[in-house]
Structure formats: structure tokens, C-alpha cells
Write a structure and sequence with these properties.
heterodimer; A: about 0% helix; B: seven-stranded mixed beta sheet; 11 strands
């Protein structure tokens, strides 16, 4: 089955710093989503981005489907950005998740 | 517009007992998915429905697990004869066909 790798596994930032999270996947996909999991376990949708570039406030994402990777950019990080970020990919059915990037933003 | 809801949010049970979880998807969504997440891992796919038809089941879904979506609306996931290894967060998601999946808050199961 498809493999998803996320890097880095852990990231510690000072408030205000920028960061880039990476997601590599092993096969062509029709669906790619980025999520933020809050401390209560809720998965919050950030981007639905099987290809191209999208921006939403301080967050943006780019997927290069032909090269099988996606990047999530966080600018001017805030303490509320802390949590686990997941990339998930798939066809038109199930999603396969990576193991996540655990982000800690300190004041 | 309400999101995906799950009930209960937490369940503590003793080994060997049966448990049932409920998921109510976003109202117009015809696909409903179940995932399981253990500590430190990403969610793993269990099964999904399109309307009332169960179209795929993971090999993670042993014979003790059964899922239903009887009228194509809400779904239930039942675990029979629970084991300590079943302790996890059970997540439900819904979508339109060929579209973004939205997740519920999850049911956290602890098997003592």
C-alpha cells in the first residue's frame, strides 16, 4: 500500500518563527489533506490539496503531485499552533496518514 | 451547519465486555469512514460506507468488530469481547464522494 512519511517528527519554535513541514508519499494520489490535531484529539482540516498551492491566513500549502510531496508552511507561529500536524493521502476512498509532526511553539 | 458528531466521547469498559459507538455524519454526506488511532500514531483506516453499503474493510477489523449504517445516515461500530489492545481513539469521518473528509471529535475507549 501507499507509504506516507512526514518530517521532521518533532519541531520546537519560538513564537513568531516560520516553519516548513514536509510530507512524502510513495504513489500517485487523488486526495491529500493536512490536519492539525488539537490536545483533545480533534482533527481540524487545514487544507484539501491534491495538487497546487493554497493559502489560508498564516498557513499555506503546496503539493507537487508529480514529485510526490507536499509542504505545509506556518508563518509567524503562535502558541496556539502547537499540536500534531498530519498529512493524509489516498485515492477516492480511505486516507493513509503519516505519523505526524509534533510542533511546540513556546512564548 | 453541524459537523460530524460521535457518542460517547469517552468509554471505559472491562475486558470481555461489548461496546457500541455511534457516529452522525454531516447531513448531506453519503460517505462515512471509521478510523482508529493509538497513542503516538496517525489514524488507521478501519472501514467505510457509501450510503448504506459497506464497501471496504481493513484487515485491522477483526471478527470481533462490526459496523453498520442501516439507513445511510448514522453509523454504529460495535466491538465484542473487548481486549486491552482495543484501547484507542475511534474516529469517524464523512465526505461527499470524491471529496474532502471531515472528522468527528472521536470516542476514546479504555479497556481495563
Amino acid at each position: 500500500g501507499i507509504q506516507v512519511e512526514q518530517s521532521p517528527p518533532d519541531l520546537i519554535l519560538q513564537e513568531g518563527a516560520n516553519s516548513t513541514l514536509r510530507c512524502n508519499f510513495s504513489d500517485s494520489v487523488n486526495n491529500l489533506q493536512w490536519f492539525h490535531q488539537n490536545p483533545w484529539g480533534q482533527l481540524i482540516n487545514l487544507f484539501y490539496i491534491p495538487s497546487g498551492t493554497k493559502q489560508n491566513g498564516r498557513l499555506s500549502a503546496t503539493t507537487v503531485a508529480t514529485e510526490r510531496y507536499s509542504l505545509l508552511y506556518i508563518s509567524s507561529s503562535q502558541t496556539t499552533d502547537s499540536g500534531v500536524y498530519f498529512c493524509a493521502v489516498g485515492g477516492f476512498q480511505k486516507l493513509v496518514f503519516g505519523t505526524g509532526t509534533r510542533l511546540l511553539v513556546s512564548p | 451547519d453541524t459537523g460530524v458528531s460521535q457518542d460517547p466521547r469517552h468509554k471505559i469498559t472491562k475486558r470481555g465486555q461489548n461496546v457500541t459507538f455511534r457516529c452522525d455524519p454531516i447531513s448531506e454526506h453519503n460517505r462515512l469512514y471509521w478510523y482508529r488511532q493509538t497513542l503516538g500514531q496517525g489514524p488507521e483506516f478501519l472501514t467505510y460506507f457509501q450510503n448504506e453499503a459497506q464497501l471496504e474493510k481493513s484487515r485491522l477489523l477483526s471478527d470481533r468488530f462490526s459496523a453498520e449504517r442501516p439507513k445511510g445516515s448514522f453509523s454504529t461500530l460495535e466491538i465484542q469481547r473487548t481486549e486491552q489492545g482495543d484501547s484507542a481513539m475511534y474516529l469517524c469521518a464523512s465526505s461527499l464522494v470524491i471529496d474532502e473528509q471531515f472528522f468527528g471529535p472521536g470516542t476514546r475507549l479504555t479497556v481495563l
